[in-house]
Design goal:
Blueprint: E1 10-14, H1 18-31, E2 35-39, H2 45-52, E3 56-59, H3 68-78, E4 87-91, H4 96-105, E5 109-112, H5 117-201, H6 208-240, E6 248-250, H7 252-269, E7 273-279, E8 286-289, H8 291-307, E9 313-321, E10 324-331, H9 365-375, E11 379-385, E12 389-397, E13 400-401
Parallel strand pairs: 1-2, 1-3, 3-4, 4-5, 7-9
Antiparallel strand pairs: 6-8, 8-13, 9-10, 10-12, 11-12
Helix pairs in contact: 5-6, 6-9, 7-8, 8-9
């Protein structure tokens, strides 16, 4: 009795003599094979091959229409290069030429008629076992290829992670260098001015007018130093996640009016038109949020707009929408080159990363505004054309206080 592994194998018998088919089919059934099909018409072999998908073919050589050689030539085009389909030739032609021809065309074994059924059974078992081993090998190869592919992908991911970590470390080093260079300049410059003005103010022969000028410079440098230190502290708290939201109820329209008064002197000093525009923000309209954080974020944008605008105007304000406030700051300043759009919210960036000394400032303003607005649940975006100006938008969700 055959191994149970092979009893369900599909076996196709091709012979123009029905008596030969009956003998083989009956013998195979006795042996326990359950899936047997046959044909006496060699023209139907290709169709049967495609529908039945045999694991083994018992093939006669000398037949009308197509010989066994013709059949093997047709099947060769249908059998994949990675497949092993055993063909056992059973023929009355016992010449060496017939045997060699059959084996060359694709037969895996050869028996002469009249055949011994016991030998036929043994050879069928051997061929099916060879097919089974081949299929197992193919399955293992496929599994191995999948594992190799998975491992390759893992290694590629690890490599990408290492490259990202390396780039992050290098970026961190550059950031530290930029931080040290920046903080050194931004603290030492106003501090030097403060020390210098303080020394000059002690001179007894100074006139009242000169004292007022030097005092103004002293205040300007002091304000710059305080702003710089505050920005560094804010950024450190934002990056570390330690900046806490302190909510309160306030009227956005009122603090925008306060910002207008706060920045009016600076805009007038730079001969700029400074305009506040509001829509739907009357004094009775109140929201609950962190007024201080929101004010800082907008102040950074107004300060930048005035700083980078040589002539024209700076317009800021807000529009009340359904469940959202959109604040904006628009200027007619230098604008931002399109190539720098993706970097403008990075630390220490004033568009040109290689030259941040075009204007005074820590280069943290936009980064601070972005992080603060996101912390409040909002978003920041901008539109800018080089040489024509920029508009920054802060969108903040809100719930009105009734």
């Amino acid at each position: 009795m055959i191994d149970s592994t092979f009893k369900n194998a599909n076996i196709l018998i091709v012979d123009d003599m029905k008596v030969n088919i009956d003998i083989l089919a009956g013998f195979l059934e006795i042996q326990g094979y359950t899936n047997i099909q046959y044909t006496t018409d060699s023209r139907l072999v290709v169709k049967l091959f495609q529908s039945f998908k045999p694991d083994l073919i018992l093939l006669d050589l000398m037949m009308p229409y197509f010989t066994g050689y013709d059949v093997m030539a047709q099947l060769k085009e249908l059998i994949g290069t990675n497949e092993y389909l055993p063909i056992l030739v059973l023929t009355a032609d016992i010449t060496c030429e017939a045997k060699q021809h059959a084996l060359f065309d694709g037969a895996k074994d050869f028996l002469a008629k009249p055949f011994d059924l016991v030998e036929v059974g043994l050879r069928i078992g051997n061929l099916l076992f060879a097919r089974y081993l081949y299929q197992q090998l193919q399955a293992q190869n496929h599994s191995l290829e999948e594992k190799v592919m998975e491992r390759t992908m893992e290694l590629e991911k690890i490599n990408c992670d290492l490259i990202a970590a390396k780039e992050k470390a290098e970026s961190s080093d550059r950031l530290k260098t930029a931080f040290l260079n920046n903080i050194s300049h931004e603290i030492r410059t106003p501090l030097s001015g403060i020390i210098g003005m303080s020394q000059v103010l002690t001179e007894p022969e100074l006139s009242q007018e000169e004292k007022e000028v030097y005092s103004s410079h002293l205040k300007s440098n002091s304000d710059r130093l305080i702003t710089t230190i505050t920005n560094y502290v804010d950024m450190a708290l934002l990056v570390s996640g330690n900046l806490e939201i302190e909510e309160s109820i306030f009227a956005p329209g009122l603090f925008l009016a306060e910002l207008q008064e706060e920045f009016r002197p600076l805009s007038e000093f730079r001969h700029l038109t400074f305009i506040l525009q509001q829509s739907g923000l009357d004094d009775d309209f109140q929201i609950k949020s962190d007024a201080g954080m929101l004010r800082k974020a907008i102040s950074q944008l107004i300060d930048n707009a005035i700083k980078f605008t040589k002539q024209g105007e700076v317009v800021f304000g807000a529009e009340r929408r359904e469940n959202e406030l959109e604040f904006f700051v628009r200027d007619t300043g230098t604008g931002i080159d399109e190539a720098s759009h993706s970097k403008i919210f990075d630390h220490f960036t004033q568009e040109n990363l290689n030259n941040t000394r075009g204007h005074e400032g820590s280069g943290l303003g936009l980064s601070i505004s972005k992080k603060m607005i996101e912390l409040l649940g909002g978003q920041i975006r901008f539109e800018s054309v080089k040489g024509k100006g920029s508009t920054f938008y802060l969108s903040l969700p809100y719930k009105a206080i009734i």
